[in-house]
Design goal:
- By secondary structure, the protein is of the alpha/beta class.
- It folds into 2 domains: 9-239, P-loop containing nucleotide triphosphate hydrolases (Rossmann fold), CATH 3.40.50; 256-347, no CATH class.
- The chain is 31% helix and 24% strand.
- A hairpin with a 2-residue loop joins strand 4 (75-82) and strand 5 (85-88).
- Helix 3 runs parallel beside helix 5 and helix 5 runs parallel beside helix 6.
- The two termini are 36 Å apart.
């Protein structure tokens, strides 16, 4: 997002939670719950790309699907701003939700399973328009052909089935389907992770072009921090269903304030075989969302943890304008960003 552009909220997420019950016995008695998304508060601004990163199992995909109500939230609100109106997306009934679907869409992670193998490409891309209603077949045909050209495929491909296409081509079809209703907000869930590196670059460039042409807003979910750095305006770091840090992309990559962010940055591969990567190895595995550690959920793996970290949950605080972090030792620590890591790595070559 350009620095001189005024930030206008598009989505406001307040206290969003998604808990899955753990049941046992014939009576299905609830004996616990998995806290996949735990009290998320954040704002997504118009025409920005918000990157969401973290290890597998941290709740990234669940957050994206819950925001769109593909998965129903346990608690919290998602407020959607458009045409000078505010809509509580989580309070809509099924009929109202169907009307609002056109404004919020999703690009799914796996291009091999997200397309119906029994439908032609034309029908796959046209389906949202047919379900939404209000369009003639001529309007649908014209819109589908226009989008297929935009995403780099040819109109002659429309009568083919998904099995005839490569992974990159299938992802382009998924993008066309997500954009056919001219949405305002798109969740891109690991949209390039299943693709070859050369194809990844093509898809990322395509997403950027479509964003600029259509004034789109993205929530870009990924685990590849190099990709996130390239495409995102801001980055949100999640761990065990919670936001632990959020800031402008350059600020977060060069001046991290949370130990987990520092560890993630150190894991970015260095594209030079002569340079030693100074990676921070976290002990153990990601914690159990069904049995969260007391206090800070990251403390069992954190080399900076103190006694307070083991007993008190840290609040997400704004340290500098737009830079939020949840750590008790923010003022004490001098964490290394990607700049220091690159310098340190280069000195070892």
């Amino acid at each position: 997002m350009p620095e001189n552009m005024e930030r206008v909220p598009l989505l406001e997420i307040e206290g969003l939670k998604k808990y899955y019950p753990i049941e046992a016995g014939i009576s299905k008695k609830k004996i616990g719950e998995v806290k996949a998304v735990d009290n998320i508060n954040l704002t997504v601004y118009k025409n920005e790309v918000l990157g969401v990163v973290g290890e597998s199992g941290c709740g990234k995909t669940t957050l994206g699907r819950t925001v769109l109500r593909i998965i129903e939230p346990t608690a919290g609100k998602v407020k959607f701003h458009f045409d000078d109106k505010e809509v509580d997306f989580t309070a809509l009934d099924k009929k109202e939700l169907r009307k609002m679907r056109r404004y919020l869409q999703m690009i799914f992670q796996n291009p091999y399973t997200s397309l119906n193998p029994r439908m032609t490409i034309f029908d796959i891309v046209a389906e949202p328009m047919r379900l939404g209603g209000g369009f003639t077949e001529d309007e649908i045909s014209e819109r589908v052909k226009t989008l297929i050209n935009k995403v780099g495929l040819e109109v002659k491909h429309l009568n083919r089935y998904p099995h005839a296409f490569s992974g990159g081509q299938r992802q382009r079809i998924g993008i066309a389907r997500a954009l056919v209703m001219d949405p305002k907000f798109v969740v891109a869930d690991e949209a390039v992770s299943a693709l070859d590196v050369s194809i990844q670059a093509q898809i990322l460039n395509l997403l950027k072009e479509l964003k600029d042409e259509n004034n789109l807003t993205y929530m870009f979910i990924a685990h590849n921090l190099s990709v996130v750095e390239h495409v995102s305006d801001r980055v949100c770091v999640m761990y065990l269903g919670r936001v632990v840090e959020m800031a402008e992309t350059e600020e977060l990559f060069y001046h991290p304030k949370h130990p987990y962010t520092e560890a993630l940055l150190s894991a970015i591969p260095v594209a030079d075989p002569t340079v030693e990567n100074n990676r921070i190895m976290l002990p153990g595995e990601v914690g159990n969302a069904a049995n969260l550690p007391s206090g800070c959920c990251f403390h069992p793996r954190c080399k900076y943890a103190c006694e307070e970290c083991k007993t008190k949950v840290p609040e997400l605080r704004e340290l500098t304008p737009g830079h939020f972090a949840a750590c008790h030792r923010i003022e004490d620590l001098k964490l290394e960003g990607i700049g220091e890591l690159k310098v340190k790595n280069s000195s070892k070559s």
